[in-house]
């Protein structure tokens, strides 16, 4: 394939699986639709003692949201913040950051002292977008390169792997035969666009209706939708199933690579 800057990548097919800042998708000038993401996240670790039960929990209070994922001897934490507010939070200093986090998530109060400075806190910017065409002659984008996913639901990796399986199923055997591939790349997009649209729509709703509302300063209570799921545990299975298993599951059916 030939890139917009004139560089040439010599292969029958280049798979752009280089993530949400894909240089290949930019170079190929594939058309992109930005769905907007009103949030970013500060990520950090807080040490903890091992417990027999898993203490993963999300905390919302007074315009703050903190997620603590129990990884055994530490919590992987995310403080979700409105997009564009990172610098202001940082400017208030690490002491204030520790206090704010401990106030909303008391379970972190003891271990948070180990955050010595903002060097221990990483800002991860959240993007939600998708290409409207995933392919160009000699190129196919998959995963975040085709559709950047938000961390909401923790499903971006599932979708990226499902794209790869679908691409292998549709392309491996024709590639072995030396068939033309461009129509088949379009078939990969057709197969995978539907689940991407559904999951991104769910993520967008959560961004706007749940997280956006929760982060609104002065809002002391979690949004109605979250309180509802909190009260009726059985209902939590519905989004969990959609997110966990995916909208269109993929199973490997491509031929095995002949052993050398
Ligand atoms: C803050 C945050 C938290 C998230 N948390 C989760 C989660 O818990 N669970 C989940 O399922 N999803 C999560 N996601 C989404 C998830 O990270 C992505 O959807 C998923 O990683 C996409 O996989 P990918 O293989 O397409 O891209 P990536 O995982 O981004 O992989 C791209 C790879 O390409 C390499 N690369 C990039 N450019 C080049 C280059 N020029 N040359 C060579 N190599 C290159 C990169 O080093 C990287 O290894 C999160 C996203 C964000 C922003």
Entry keywords:
260 residues; alpha+beta; FAD/NAD(P)-binding domain; D-Amino Acid Oxidase, Chain A, domain 2; 2 domains; five-stranded antiparallel sheet; 7 helices
Task: Give me the number of helical elements.
Answer: 7
What average pLDDT do the residues reach?
Answer: 90
* Regions with little confidence, pLDDT below 50 for 5+ residues: none
- Major β-sheet strand ordering: 4-5-6-3-7
Any idea what the CATH architecture of the largest domain is? 3-Layer(bba) Sandwich
Residue share in helices? 25-40%
What letter string, H or E per element, gives the SSE order? EHEEEEEHHEEEEHHHH
Helix vs. strand class: alpha+beta
Mind summarizing the main beta sheet? 5 strands, antiparallel
Give the C-level CATH assignment of the largest domain. Answer: Alpha Beta
Overall tally of domains:
2
Question: What is the 3D form?
Answer: elongated
Strand element count: 10
Instruction: Spell out the CATH superfamily of the largest domain.
Output: FAD/NAD(P)-binding domain
Describe this structure in words.
The chain has 260 residues and is an alpha+beta fold. The protein folds into 2 domains: 14-36 and 128-245, FAD/NAD(P)-binding domain (3-Layer(bba) Sandwich); 39-125, D-Amino Acid Oxidase, Chain A, domain 2 (2-Layer Sandwich). The chain has 7 helices and 10 strands. The protein has helices at residues 23-27, 86-91, 94-104, 156-177, 182-215, 224-231, 237-245, and strands at 14-16, 32-34, 39-47, 57-61, 64-70, 74-82, 122-125, 129-131, 135-136, 139-141. The strands form 3 sheets. It has a 5-stranded antiparallel β-sheet. The structure holds flavin-adenine dinucleotide. Residues 17-19, 23, 41, 124, 126, 143-145, 149, 151, 154-158, 160 line the site of flavin-adenine dinucleotide (FAD).
């Amino acid at each position: 394939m030939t890139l917009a800057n004139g560089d040439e990548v010599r292969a029958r097919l280049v798979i752009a699986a280089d993530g949400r800042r894909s240089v290949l998708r930019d170079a190929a000038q594939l058309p992109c639709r930005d769905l907007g993401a009103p949030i970013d996240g500060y990520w950090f670790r807080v040490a903890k003692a091992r417990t027999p039960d898993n203490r993963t929990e999300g905390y919302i209070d007074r315009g703050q949201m903190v997620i603590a994922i129990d990884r055994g001897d530490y919590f992987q934490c995310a403080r979700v913040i409105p997009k564009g507010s990172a610098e202001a939070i940082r400017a208030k200093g690490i002491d204030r950051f520790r206090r704010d986090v401990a106030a909303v998530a008391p379970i972190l109060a003891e271990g948070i002292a180990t955050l010595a400075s903002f060097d221990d806190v990483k800002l991860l910017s959240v993007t939600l977008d998708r290409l409207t065409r995933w392919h160009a002659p000699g190129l196919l984008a998959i995963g975040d390169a085709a559709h950047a996913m938000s961390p909401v639901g923790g499903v971006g990796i599932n979708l990226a792997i499902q794209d790869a399986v679908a691409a292998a199923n549709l392309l491996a055997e024709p590639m072995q035969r030396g068939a033309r591939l461009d129509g088949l790349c379009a078939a990969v997009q057709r197969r995978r666009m539907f689940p991407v649209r559904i999951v991104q729509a769910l993520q967008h709703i959560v961004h706007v209706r749940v997280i956006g509302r929760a982060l609104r300063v002065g809002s002391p209570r979690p949004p109605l939708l979250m309180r509802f799921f909190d009260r009726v545990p059985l209902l939590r299975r519905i989004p969990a199933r959609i997110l966990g298993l995916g909208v269109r599951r993929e199973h490997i059916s491509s031929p095995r690579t002949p052993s050398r």
